Amino acid sequence: MHPVLDDLITLLKLEQIEDNIFRGDSRDIGSAQVFGGQVLGQALSAAQRTVEGRGAHSLHAYFLRRGDMTAPIVYEVDRARDGGSFSMRRVVAIQHGRPIFNLAASFQIAEQGLDHQAQMPDVPGPESLKDFSDVGAELLNVLPQKMRRFLTDKRPFDFRPVEPINFLEPQKQAPLKHVWIRAVAALPDDQTLHKNLLAYVSDYELLGTSTLPHGLPFGRGQVIMASLDHALWFHRKVEIDNWLLYAMDSPNASAARGFARGQIFSRDGHLVASTAQEGLVRVVEKVRATDRSDPRLQA
Questions:
Q1: 279: number of CA atoms within 13 Å, CB side?
Q2: Cα separation of 179 and 158, whole Å?
Q3: Separation CA 156–CA 158 (nearest Å)
Q4: Is the pLDDT of residue 71 over 50?
Q5: pLDDT at position 1
Q6: Which pTM was predicted?
Q7: Range of the domain at 193
Q8: Which CATH number is 144's domain given?
Q9: What is the number of structural domains in the chain?
């Protein structure tokens, strides 16, 4: 197993400290606070630990406060319902005695039914594209330290964007984005694991799609972004160690919020999952102390 990927899998497993109560640690990926995808993946993992014989098919989450990377996160699971076909779980993530995140997740026994899906976008395959971190030394030298670290640190996933990224002088463009994603090593055939990892990685790139029509200068410290909520629906079998195309678009930005949605396709064109997210997007002359302390500022 790849060490960075193995560490992420361990991070998502959680420690059970009581019935329906779990505890997890955090990793610093270069963001100012705990990465939102980490909390999503851990909360889904906690919920799944209380369900037998049923797989997750949807989750809806709200980010309430920024997470503290130096403190453990406690996940309390409420076994809201176990029906004949579906189970419902509510999860609260707690730090320093306060909730930082709420999750509702639904699980279903395997069933057959009607079947149709959206068509996969016609884009170049991943083999012809560069990895997200494949940038020249000249560019790295002029990027802010946090952005430089985000690009150069080893990650558990490969990211190959279809559309070129201009880190220094972004141009206004249509609110569309396509990124190929794949775990850096082969994984066991365990749908619970693959879905937890997909929940984790689904928080990458999504909200940023809502900023594309505005050409925002992220490298100048004038953009404040934070996830407010996140929804994820699993449609078909997930194989996160094979290439997946994350196709994103943003139909709206207003009232200091951006809205984006995504479709995740397997390499052979099957729609694996869908996502939606709204987040805080503020453009300021200078980042103020009050903005830094905003409880909604979690990645």
A1: 27
A2: 10
A3: 7
A4: yes
A5: 63
A6: 0.91
A7: 3-110+130-292
A8: 2.40.160.210
A9: 1
What is the DSSP code string of the chain?
--HHHHHHHHHHH-EEEETTEEEE-----SSSS--HHHHHHHHHHHHHTT--S-EEEEEEEEE-S---TTS-EEEEEEEEEE-SSEEEEEEEEEETTEEEEEEEEEEE---------PPPP----GGGS--TT---HHHHHHS-HHHHHHHHS--SEEEEESS---SSSPPP--SEEEEEEEESS---S-HHHHHHHHHHHTTSSTGGGGGGGGT--GGGT-EEEEEEEEEEEE-S---TTS-EEEEEEEEEEETTEEEEEEEEEETTS-EEEEEEEEEEEEE-SS--HHHHT-TT---
176-233 per-position pLDDT tens digit = 999 999 999 999 999 999 999 999 999 998 999 999 999 887 656 678 889 999 999 9
Give me the sign of the Cα torsion angle 82, 86, 87, 91: negative
* pLDDT confidence bin for 294, thresholds 50/70/90: very low
Q: Is residue 148 part of a domain?
A: yes
Query: Is the backbone of residue 255 left (phi > 0), alpha (psi -120 to 50) or beta?
Result: left
16 burial type by CB count under 10 A (0-12 exposed, 13-18 middle, 19+ buried): middle
Instruction: Return the active site residues.
Output: 203, 227, 277
- 42 vs 224, higher pLDDT: 42
Domain membership of residue 100 (yes or no) is yes
How confident is the model over 264-277, as pLDDT tens digits? 999 999 999 999 99
Is the residue at 298 inside a domain? no
Q: Which range, of 58-67, 70-79, 165-174, averages the lowest pLDDT? A: 165-174
Q: Is residue 121 part of a domain?
A: no
